[in-house]
Amino acid sequence: APRTAAEPTPTATPRPLRDVTFIAGFRAQANLAFVAAYLAQECGYFAEEGLRVTIRHSAGQDEHLKLLLAKEAQFTTATGAQALLRYADGLPVRAVALWGQRGDQGYVARADSGIRTPADFKGRSVGIKSGIVPAELRAMLAGVGLTTEDVRLQGVGFDPRVFVQGAVDIYPVFLGNEPFAIRKTGTAITTFDPADFGVATLGLTYLAHADVVRDDPTLVRAFLRATLRGAQLAAERPDEAVAATLKYADGADPAQQRYLLDADLAAAKRADGMGRASADQWRALQATLERYGVLTKPVPAPGPFEGAIIGGLYDAQGRLR
Amino acid sequence: MTAEEPQSARREHVTPTATSNAPTPRAPARPEASTLRSLLPPLLALAVTLVAWEAYIRAAEVPLYLVPAPSDVVAVLARTPGRFAAAGFTSLIEALGGLAVGAGAAFAVAVVMAHSRPLERALYPLALLVKVTPVVAVAPLFIIWFGFGAAPKVLIAALITFFPMLVNAVTGLRSVPPAALDVFRALDASPWQTFRLLRVPASLPYVVAALKISVPLSLIGAVVAEWMSGDGGVGQIILIANSSLDTASLFAAVVVLAVLAVALTGAIALVERRLLSWHESAEVQ
Amino acid sequence: MTAEEPQSARREHVTPTATSNAPTPRAPARPEASTLRSLLPPLLALAVTLVAWEAYIRAAEVPLYLVPAPSDVVAVLARTPGRFAAAGFTSLIEALGGLAVGAGAAFAVAVVMAHSRPLERALYPLALLVKVTPVVAVAPLFIIWFGFGAAPKVLIAALITFFPMLVNAVTGLRSVPPAALDVFRALDASPWQTFRLLRVPASLPYVVAALKISVPLSLIGAVVAEWMSGDGGVGQIILIANSSLDTASLFAAVVVLAVLAVALTGAIALVERRLLSWHESAEVQ
Amino acid sequence: MRAACARDGGAVHVPESSAGSSPSASPAIEVRGVTHHYGGDDGLLAVDDASLAVAEGEFVSLVGPSGCGKTTLLRAVAGLLAVERGTVHLSGDTPRAAAAAHAVGLVAQEPGLLPWRTAEENVALPLQLGGIDAERQGEVRAALDRVGMTEFARFRPRELSGGMRQRVALARALVHRPRVLLMDEPFGALDELSREDLCVELLRVWEHERVSVLFVTHSIREAVLLSDRVVVMSPAPGRVVAEVPITLPRPRTLAMLESEACAAAVREIRAALGRLPAEVT
Amino acid sequence: MRAACARDGGAVHVPESSAGSSPSASPAIEVRGVTHHYGGDDGLLAVDDASLAVAEGEFVSLVGPSGCGKTTLLRAVAGLLAVERGTVHLSGDTPRAAAAAHAVGLVAQEPGLLPWRTAEENVALPLQLGGIDAERQGEVRAALDRVGMTEFARFRPRELSGGMRQRVALARALVHRPRVLLMDEPFGALDELSREDLCVELLRVWEHERVSVLFVTHSIREAVLLSDRVVVMSPAPGRVVAEVPITLPRPRTLAMLESEACAAAVREIRAALGRLPAEVT
Ligand SMILES: Nc1ncnc2c1ncn2[C@@H]1O[C@H](COP(=O)(O)OP(=O)(O)OP(=O)(O)O)[C@@H](O)[C@H]1O
Ligand SMILES: Nc1ncnc2c1ncn2[C@@H]1O[C@H](COP(=O)(O)OP(=O)(O)OP(=O)(O)O)[C@@H](O)[C@H]1O
Ligand SMILES: [Mg+2]
Ligand SMILES: [Mg+2]
Predict the structure, then answer these.
(1) What domains can you pick out in chain E, each with its CATH number?
(2) Which of B76, B220, D129, A80 lies closest to C129, judged by CA?
(3) Which of B165, B170, B195 is closest to B101 using CA atoms?
(4) Could you tell me where the beta strands, DSSP code E, fall in chain A?
(5) Which candidate, A3, D281, C199, places its Cα nearest to that of E203?
(6) Minimum-distance CB partner of A162 among C144, C227, C243
């Protein structure tokens, strides 16, 4: 039976606590991957696992990866695609948990724009962030026999107001929160999740330094156990999870955070236990990235995902041991 | 204005008239009086701007998520004043730290550059390189090297304020009246005495000017640094507001920055009054 | 250096000696000669820095993803020179546009501010407000109002360069020798004549100085704008490099910026030589 | 007519009455009861009820201790300063009207040349402001000739010595053929020997121009050497305390400085200044 | 001894030889065959083989046309300029040694006061630089007294008139009791009447200090009024062309300016300058 903060573990207290730094790969918000850590901290799960965890955030550029590689942090978050690409770059990183079983990158169009399916993208202006055409867009278009030649690609920033004001027809979003923000402006929209159109995507992972995974699996296990418990608590008591988030994101809109958490919880659902992943999922992602030229390097064994540790935390019924 | 244009380089005199009159016109204007006079126009201008803005927003029915009306901004500030105050304080401390570090370092380098033209020419392009390096390129390094918390933010603010202070300090340290320099040398003053008693005081007006320029820069620096390390201060308020299209909070944050900038500039102006009452600029201001 | 310190305000003279000698020491130094002399030290300094940097990276075995060695940066530049050149050109155009617009607007406002102290006091805080407004807060508005493409980027660069130009231009327009002003008034010159023939030329040295300060600012502005609207120019290279841990490309982009900044500053210095040969500063530079 | 009378020194015997107003046609410069405070009535009283007149083609010097209001008075005549009380007329016009008619040439202690213009471009300024242009370049050349600066036409001010700059300023003040020439210690920044040279220069020029001069100076001997009449002002607040006609013949030479007539004039002026040799030290 | 001889004017009959070196104890200032180019040998020859000497407690003026090298020479004596050829000694020491011994007081045309210091703080500078401090504030007061600036002790330079600034500069040059006082046109920027006042001032001070003075000026009459001896330099490149002893009795008064003896000295000096009244104009 899952422990809760109410009944602290007897084994926890005597051990000297180990210092661990977790840096969330973006600013504080209610991504399940973040919330899991917030609650693990809040409810003392980390302590029970013998960890003294410092939680940091990054601006969503690549500094969290640099910090991980510099061993300033032991754990961070990255999308499945990022994990795969960096791993293929030969950098010593491994994903030790996969939260989002599907990617959180999608697209929105105004409901009154007559854009209902990816096929309707034809001839419309499609926004792309940071100048890179994502594989999932290419894949989604390919699914309906289109290429990026058939749409007008338009670099857009990180501010949906340009979409709300009609500067672009189709806008790239983080499905978890941006649709909510856009609807708040009174704009009715249709959302497009590539996964719904058979595109293989993966969401956020926990990333660890390869050395840590190899030399110190117990540390990884302890961190995962604590955060998985946090995630479970988040699933049971989402309001507490949002409250915990707001401690890190003072002034954020609770409703929007709740929306994000719910979306992530839905995306994290998995019969054999949250955070796990199958080799097939990763192979499918790899295939997509290779097909659309995002991944050009070979992916050496054993692959970006280390599933054994998290697997060892679950029993046959997918319950946390 | 031109009518009373002071006459160019009026020759000075020692007649009784002069000795009794001359000081009077030269003495700087009464502070409190001038302060009041100098405060009125900007307040007026501000009021006008705000009213016009509010009116436009209402007339054109600009949606809140796009541009808030002043009233919206005030409302946000009023709802959680503590939050904005705290954030402002955090950023202020970082900015001040950055100002201190950046100005200090720049002045030190300026001492070297002022010492010889070739050295100045040698170092200037490097300073320029520092100047054009986008913060994002170095911020992660700073975090890696100096950990999280205030240190990297202060250093980023320092980085941004470094350049203007350098340029002015070099000019200032060079702006020594040659006649005074002659006197020092005729009295066999040591280099250290000349530096301490002559060059440094002579450079003060330029240093103060640079500080004024650097105030907004240091605040911007602190904010950008806060984005990079994704926590604390006005920077975070802006980030969060941005993510939820909360433009009212966004502009409120900007208002906080503006207030801080004006306050700091005012503080410097006060220091200037006390410290540089001897300087010509004291007259015109 | 101090030994030959020019004597303070040497009284001038009309003796034959003087008429024959006086001009000579005052004439500005031969351009080409001084250019060469002024180029050597910085190049040396640069070389030293690069060598030291490379050596450190190799000695300390700093990983590439953290800080690249100069050789790595050069390699990246050599691999896709066209890409960097194109991006640099894009950003350069935006920066120049911004410089032109920002400087132009600032000068126009300066003309108003220079006209009366109260107006200056009134507008200064507003200018300060503009200065502290983080680009992220306004960039989207610019895109919404002016569409995608160059326009918003130019305007953001302009926004950033506005402030220093304003401050200097006001000072410059005020720096008119009163004696000359008297002559104009005694000849009943129209305000327009006084402005065109006296105030504007007198302000040029200050304007040029401000341009020098603004060059790096305008480039930074263009880059930030490119992040905001996420396409084109050096900004995009930085963005992509950042999101793919490609530090070498990141630094390569910074190098491109630095080169552009140095080039622009140099160009301005040349203009200065031609345009301001009459100004004291021509001597010391 | 004036050139002649200047030569035989006849014109210098201006009737004292001219200090008020000349009976004949209105004088070139007429200042009546001018009073001026700086900074409002409760401010500093710079000039107190001063009156003087300069006849057509007359050379009048204004001497007085520093701060007595000489510059203030001169600026009033040049129309650079709106006086508080009293009237100023140039051949019957107001100063601004005279300025508008380009009837005034001004040379101040600071040459006030435009540093970005060459000597000849500076001299051309009055013509340019008057809308007369290139076609009259001849006059610019002529003006530069008159002050012996032809060879320096293309020099910038910073390439010229102080004395040379004053010569250019003088040429600029004369190029548009003003009726009145106002000079405020034009040689104040120069050394004694250079001053003497420029005085000789100025005398030569003046003797060829149909121009009336009001010349402010500190140097009593300079005033005596140059003037038909010397107006003496009291220490501040400035009042006109004496007018000393100079009877030295024209053309004047430096040698005359040694003459007894000169010494006498100097003594008279010093006395008017309350500077009797006896009572000093 | 000096005060006396200065009074009866005996000391002024310095043997011409003293231009080279005085037979007695080494003179206060001795300049021998000094030559200096600005900007290297091929540069501008400013001073050409100039020699002069100032005896203990003697007041010597240096006159010459502008640009003849007076300031250059004075700066060499003050140790501000390393001369190319020739020797400079102050009571046998090198200029730098004399400076190190705080034996030199300097007053240039620009007062060169520190604008951020009050008059008294400026006067205190030499003591401060010499490591002597507060305990000698008395001397600062005394120095200010001597130049009649006591009441302005707390004024900043920009609150003082030009003449007042020069008085403060003079006090600063005297406060550390230097053996030699070097003055480079200290009154150049003042008007004639103020100059006279300050000359009288300077004479009063000098008659109470045991100090030897080298005084650079453009004004021949000023030189005559002040000096025991006037050294005349030729136009550039500067050479010493004459030494004119002034036989006016001490203490001097402005009245003496009117005396025939003065006029004679002036004529002699003008002649030496190649400025015979005859040949002018
Ligand atoms: N623009 C001004 N504002 C205030 N006071 C002034 C101004 N100009 C002159 N004064 C004062 O008015 C008085 C007369 O000044 P003015 O310059 O006319 O005298 P002056 O005879 O020209 O003196 P100088 O011979 O030194 O030039 C002086 O006390 C001076 O301080
Ligand atoms: N620092 C310098 N660099 C180059 N030339 C100089 C410098 N100082 C003076 N000169 C030149 O040397 C010559 C002598 O200058 P100096 O100042 O000694 O003459 P002066 O007699 O003091 O002139 P004045 O009476 O105008 O002060 C002049 O031609 C001057 O232009
Ligand atoms: Mg005057
Ligand atoms: Mg000199």
Answers:
(1) 28-103+179-281 (3.40.50.300), 113-177 (no CATH)
(2) B220
(3) B165
(4) 18-24, 51-57, 75-79, 93-98, 105-110, 125-129, 152-156, 170-174, 189-192, 204-209
(5) D281
(6) C144
How far does the CA of residue C143 sit from the closest CA of chain A (Å)? 7
Segment A196-235, tens digit of pLDDT: 999 999 999 999 999 999 999 999 999 999 999 999 999 9
Query: Under DSSP, is residue B61 helix (H, G, I), strand (E, B) or coil?
Result: coil
Tell me how far apart the alpha carbons of residues C228 and C159 are, in angstroms, rounded to a whole number. Answer: 15
Could you tell me the sign of the dihedral formed by the alpha carbons of D221, D227, D228, D231, in that order?
negative
Which chain D residue is nearest to residue B12, measuring alpha carbons? D66
The answer to whether B240 contacts A158, with C-beta atoms less than 8 Å apart, is: no
Task: Kindly report the three-state secondary structure assignment for every residue of B88-146.
Answer: HHHHHHHHHHHHHHHHHHHHHHHHHHHHCHHHHHHHHHHHHHHHHCCHHHHHHHHHHHH
Q: Which residues pair with A56 in a beta bridge?
A: A23
pLDDT band (50, 70, 90) for residue E274: confident
Q: So what's the ipTM on this one?
A: 0.76
pTM, two decimal places: 0.78
Query: What span, in angstroms and rounded, lies between the C-alpha atoms of E168 and E157?
Result: 9
Q: Chains with 3 or more CB pairs closer than 8 angstroms to C?
A: A, B, D, E
Q: Delineate the domains of chain C, giving CATH numbers in brackets.
A: 79-276 (1.10.3720.10)
Instruction: State the Cα–Cα distance between residues C109 and C128, nearest whole angstrom.
Output: 13
**Which residues, 6 or more positions from B230, have their beta carbon under 8 angstroms from its beta carbon?**
A24, A26, A27, A28, A56, A57, A58, A59, A60, B236, B239
Decide if pLDDT at A93 tops 80: yes
What is the position in ligand 1's atom list of the atom closest to the CA of B5? 1
Rounded to whole angstroms, how far apart are CA atoms D11 and D2? 8
The DSSP line for D238-267 is: B-EEEEEE----SS--GGGGGSHHHHHHHH
Q: Is the CB of D44 inside a 6 Å radius of any atom of ligand 1? A: yes
Q: Is the peptide bond before C68 cis (omega within 30 degrees of 0)?
A: no
Residue C163 and residue C44: Cα distance in Å, rounded? Answer: 34
Q: How confident is the model over A251-286, as pLDDT tens digits?
A: 888 999 999 999 999 999 999 999 999 999 999 999
Strand bridging mode E85-89 / E29-38: antiparallel
Quick check: D117 and D125 in contact, CB under 8 A?
yes
List, in sequence order, the alpha helices (H) in A18-170.
32-42, 45-48, 63-69, 80-88, 135-143, 161-164
B vs E: CB pairs below 8 A:
114
